[in-house]
């Protein structure tokens, strides 16, 4: 097995801001695995929140042995971006070898399109209202919040997009007191979901707290080992390939979480269509799909995912899987 890693940069369509900072481009790692005849590929987005850098993830991948399978990879690398890119590349390689689609290999039904959220960047209330109005035709909007001045922003977005379903992502930016204060207003404004309101290390405060709007674990949920710590705190889990360390673990996490009574959200980092493609398998029937990464880019991969009124469609074989 030959493994190659390259760095790719995709310009964003506009500055993208969350409570942790702003960016103008998406920096990703592209992994290609080859058996000498066929080649598969995958993408990951190293995330500083989890102490990942382009360099550290490259080093993890460089240390892998030549003899590699999806199952052996689970033991060689921890959950995270490095394992994700390699795992997804191995799925793609097997598809190329067998001539089968990834959903057939996974024993899943043929996937269809799923409505995806579209994320509004954190900005002034006036600017966010303008963003909302521009995207008011979209059925599902996601708002990045997590500051002391969130209510004017939320009110502004609802005014700009009165008919869209809204979900909010606080990116760990609230305290328990702030969340409790905001909760009735979230209900009043028709918010359908709150993503990671409290810091992952301080989310015990959610136990016993009224949750009139479903609360979703993002930073608090990485893979199946996270599930025991979520009881009594969350209603939904956000599955992201860069957190689970690939599609293999993500499928298992999805099954385990559903068995324990959680609803499913499928999310993403800001990356290209290659990064989103495997996640379209997970998104089938999910409560919330949030795979808008390519919609935030000014440029994308060849043979990109198709986004239309029906949602995000599964990938063509020329892209992945």
Describe the structure.
This protein is α/β, with parallel strands linked by helices. Helix content is 30%, strand content 22%. It is built from eleven helices and 13 strands. It has helices at residues 54-62, 70-76, 81-98, 102-105, 125-134, 150-160, 176-188, 241-244, 247-259, 273-276, 279-282; strands at residues 2-18, 21-34, 39-44, 118-120, 140-144, 165-169, 191-195, 215-217, 236-239, 263-266, 288-289, 307-308, 311-312. The mean pLDDT is 95.
Question: In percent terms, what proportion of residues is strand?
Answer: 15-25%
- Average per-residue pLDDT, rounded, comes to 95
Contiguous helical run count: 11
- Work out the number of β strands: 13
- Cα radius of gyration in angstroms: 19 Å
Give the helices and strands as they follow along the chain. Answer: EEEHHHHEHEHEHEEEHHEHHEEE
Distance, first to last CA:
18 Å
> How would you describe the shape?
globular
**Quaternary class:** single chain
Proportion in helices? 25-40%
Report the sheet with the most strands, covering strand number, pairing sense and barrel closure.
8 strands, parallel
Low-confidence stretches: none
């Amino acid at each position: 097995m030959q493994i190659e890693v390259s760095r790719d940069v995709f310009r964003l369509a506009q500055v993208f801001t969350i409570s942790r900072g702003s960016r103008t481009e998406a920096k990703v790692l592209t992994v290609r695995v080859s058996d000498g005849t066929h080649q598969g590929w995958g993408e990951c987005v190293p995330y500083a929140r989890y102490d990942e850098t382009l360099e550290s993830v490259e080093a993890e991948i460089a240390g892998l042995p030549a003899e590699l399978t999806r199952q052996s990879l689970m033991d060689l690398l921890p959950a995270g971006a490095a394992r994700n890119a390699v795992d997804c590349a191995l799925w793609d390689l097997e598809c190329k070898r067998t001539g089968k689609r990834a959903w057939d290999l996974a024993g899943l039904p043929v996937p269809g399109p799923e409505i995806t959220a579209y994320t509004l960047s954190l900005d002034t209330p006036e600017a966010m209202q303008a963003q909302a109005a521009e995207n008011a035709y979209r059925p599902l909007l996601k708002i990045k919040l997590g500051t002391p001045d969130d209510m004017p922003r939320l009110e502004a977005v609802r005014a700009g997009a009165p008919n869209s379903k809204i979900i909010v992502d606080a990116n760990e930016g609230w305290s328990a007191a702030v969340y409790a204060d905001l909760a009735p207003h979230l209900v009043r404004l028709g918010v359908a979901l709150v993503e990671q309101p409290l810091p992952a290390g301080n989310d015990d405060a959610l136990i016993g707290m009224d949750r009139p709007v479903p609360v979703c674990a993002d930073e608090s949920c990485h893979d199946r080992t996270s599930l025991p710590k979520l009881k009594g705190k969350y209603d939904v889990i956000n599955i992201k390939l860069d957190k689970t360390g690939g599609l293999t673990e993500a499928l298992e996490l999805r099954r385990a979480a559903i068995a324990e009574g959680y609803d499913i959200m499928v999310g993403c980092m800001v990356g290209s269509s290659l990064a989103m493609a495997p996640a379209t398998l997970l998104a089938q029937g999910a409560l919330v799909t949030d795979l808008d990464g390519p919609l935030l880019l000014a440029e994308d991969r060849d043979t990109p995912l198709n986004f239309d009124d029906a949602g995000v469609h599964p990938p063509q074989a020329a892209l992945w899987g």
